[in-house]
Amino acid sequence: MTAITGSLVAIVTPMREDGSLDWDSYRRLIDWHIEEGTNAIVAVGTTGESATVDPEEHVELIRIAVETAAGRVKVIAGTGANSTQEAIELTREARRVGADASLQVVPYYNRPTQEGLYRHFRAVAEAVDLPVILYNVPSRTGTDLSVDTTMRLAQVPGIVGIKDASGDLARVVEMRRVLQHRVVRNGNREFALYSGNDDTGLAYLLLGGDGVISVTANVVPRPMAEMCAAALRGDVATARAINEHLMPLHVRLFVEPNPVPAKWALARMGRIPGGIRLPLVPLSAPGQEIVAQAMRDAGIGSAA
Fold first, then answer.
1. Which of 163, 194, 204, 263 is the catalytic position?
2. Structural domains in the chain, sorted by start
């Protein structure tokens, strides 16, 4: 798989008020993203409420994303789990329905050692012929995938990149340094470096990253795509100007747990209904005021 660059949306999963999935809104969102220049769809990740969809819904969300994208952009399927066998089974299903790659989160709750992490991700990559992008988000998982372990995994065939949501910008510099001095290609594939944080996404790109797996892109897909494209072509002034305009969203879309604020914003825009599943609850009144102001600051209207 050729490395995907630019803005990759961590897409929300639209739900009705009763928590049932809204497949029509989901298809429309994907079409909108492609029209607006988003470079890839990341389905059923944290933002897609992977923790509360059931296995059948999980696979169907991937299948419909693939069907709707229809080859226009790549689809990366969130298929990670804290059980290695469950991650393998979900990844097999993602491959069966046509996903282009899988996003594998660091196992959560059981807090494996670095050796356990290495063996977990290697086992998934060896069991399923589908490119693997690692996902390090220690604030949610309780375990941090170290740079050393990441670089070990970069040498495993089939492991093609990392989404780093640690917030540590020094890591992208260190990983690039190591990658430049080792043979870490999987066939002809480079090991790609993606930011998992919107607020530091531009800095990550300018330090050598390849893209941003973005929550903000749910709400403003075209500006995020334009910002990433400008940064990757070296147009720092344009990238900085767009980023400054979007910074209120980068920050305030996390005023309550993701994806609560992003889903509220999209519902306000008329793009999805307002449903979300417990244990998450709708955005609070104070949160609504904060996100609404961020939307005004970014020039977003209230209707689709």
1. 163
2. 6-255 (3.20.20.70)
